[in-house]
Amino acid sequence: IIDTELQLKDLETLDNRISKTQKQARTGGDKDALKALEVCEQFKAHLEKGLNARSLEMDAERRALIADLSLLTDKPVMYVCNVDPDSANSGNQYVEKVREVVKDEDAEILIISAAIESEIAELESFEDRQLFLEELGLENSGVEKLIKGAYNLLNYITYFTVGKKEVRAWTITTGMKAPQAAGVIHTDFEKGFIRAEVIAYNDYVELGSESACRDAGKLRVEGKEYIVKDGDCSTPFGFSRMNDLILQPILFMGVLSLLMMLLMYLTRIPAAKQLETEGVVLQQLSHPSQLGGV
Predict the structure, then answer these.
(1) Mind listing the pLDDT tens digit for each residue in 205-236?
(2) For residue 207, what is the DSSP state?
């Protein structure tokens, strides 16, 4: 039912675009509009068969022509199957039915047991939770699998910034270079990026500190072309403040100029008043009646 409603909404979106694109293609002979129209009609025909847009085989270049439509059934989907505790490892016949239904969608299928998750939530320590999972033959809890599966589906990874006061995790898209990853923290870091000191997550956990990693030769200096990896730990970024060094003097000189202009204006007011007074006096003395009737 949910898929049907989403498909109907996508059909409505496509109909609106087709109507608009047809006019552009016919009146202006726009080649791009003709290509987009063809793609829209392909998606429409596919949806009218009761199939989701993501199951339509089409190259990325053609899909990009209507990417701005953000078709609901073209978005990545994760199917979470809640099973009994005994089926938490490999699933059951119901999970296989789900696999069969969505086999053409390249969707993520996750198997969890809500009963097991509720028991894990009651355990206080990490060690107790790990021991409980080992007894059940599970490597990770359902929550962990859900987070990792969602990140994988959305093409996300995490890197860490490590400072003296805190450690923070940042979510970025897979394939981002170091300046782009730095820009997630603040745009200034991307603009003025020079280098980053990077430590692999496993090395940091194993050795326990930045200084130990440095001594062991596990700390690397990476430049602008470095592609950030999942779990990378970075010390504060090295970046240039050249823009600030240039702009600050300019701003200072601008403010100084304004102050000088204001000062000159204020000092001219008394002088102007004095001249005005003297001018009035001169005018009065120059009047014929005061000069003896000349």
Answers:
(1) 999 888 898 899 999 998 889 999 999 998 75
(2) H
- What is Dmax (Cα atoms) for the chain? 127
Cα–Cα distance for residue pair 146/102, rounded to 1 Å? 18
CA distance 137 to 139: 7
Q: Are strands 233-234 and 193-199 parallel, antiparallel or unpaired?
A: antiparallel
The sign of the dihedral angle between the CA atoms of 282, 288, 291, 294 is positive
**Burial 102-136, CB ≥16 within 10 A → b, else e:** beebebbbbbbbeebeeebeeeeeeeebbebbeee
Q: Is the pTM of this model over 0.90?
A: no
Cα within 13 Å of Cα(173), Cβ side: 6
What is the model's pLDDT at position 261? 73
Q: How far apart are CA 233 and CA 168, in angstroms?
A: 10
Q: How far apart are CA 208 and CA 202, in angstroms?
A: 10
Question: CB of 55 within 8 A of CB of 76?
Answer: no
Sign of CA dihedral 30, 31, 32, 34: positive
Q: What is the pLDDT of residue 2?
A: 81
pLDDT digits (tens, 9 = 90+) for 11-36: 999 999 988 888 777 776 678 888 88
Name the helix (H) or strand (E) containing 82: strand 78-82
Structure tokens at 243: 């823009």
How far from 226 is each of 51, 186, 263, CA to CA, in Å?
41, 18, 53
Which pLDDT belongs to residue 276? 52
